[in-house]
Amino acid sequence: MNLAQFVRGSTLGLAFVIAGCAGNPGQKLTSASPLQVAYQEMAADLNADPSLATYEKHLSRELRKDMEADLGPDRDDQIEFLAPPFWYEEVQNFYEGIRDGRQCLTVNGISVDGDPISAGIEYVDEQGAKKIRAVEIALFEQAGELPLEVWCPVRPDEI
């Protein structure tokens, strides 16, 4: 099953609305914006330990609670479909900003299936750290269609 098929068939209810991307283990932390740094730290942590327990450390309490109800006993088997860094073969650029009072990061690149992909990730401040509140992904036919500005995901509570 490829990533696009999983996302279309997913009943996780997490705001994975369109289809998806993964992280480049060779990514290095740079002098980047705070949300980009949080994303790159998550990617590095997942590269070292690709488990749901590692991913959950980067999620808000609210998102972890939403996920608990939707994930079964084989939780670690689903990590590559849940965690944005696993969706990308190559990350090309980031956009960060505030939209409607929400802190969002857009990650553009090429998916593991070879499609241009963009992820909108909403972050919240929790316990002195940036934590993921929602994620939405979109696939495009051509790289020129990737967004050139930040966009925020639709959260499950907004549907």
Placed side by side, the strands forming the largest sheet appear as: 1-2-3-4
What's the number of helices?
A: 5
Largest sheet: 4 strands, antiparallel
Number of domains: 1
Low-confidence stretches: 1-30
Strand content: 25-35%
Total DSSP E strands: 4
Q: For the terminal residues, how far apart are their CA atoms?
A: 27 Å
Mean pLDDT: 81
The SS-based structural class is alpha+beta
Secondary-structure element series: HHHHHEEEE
Structural Rg: 14 Å
Q: What fold name stands as the CATH topology?
A: Nuclear Transport Factor 2, Chain: A
Helix content: 25-40%
The CATH C-level name is: Alpha Beta
Q: From the 3D coordinates, which CATH architecture would you assign?
A: Roll
Oligomer: single chain
Shape: globular
Give your account of this protein's structure:
This protein has a single domain, classed as Nuclear Transport Factor 2, Chain: A (Roll), CATH 3.10.450. By secondary structure, the chain is an alpha+beta fold. The protein is globular and about 40 Å long. It has a four-stranded antiparallel sheet. A hairpin with a 4-residue loop joins strand 2 and strand 3. The longest helix has 15 residues. Helix content is 26%, strand content 28%. The chain contains five helices and four strands.
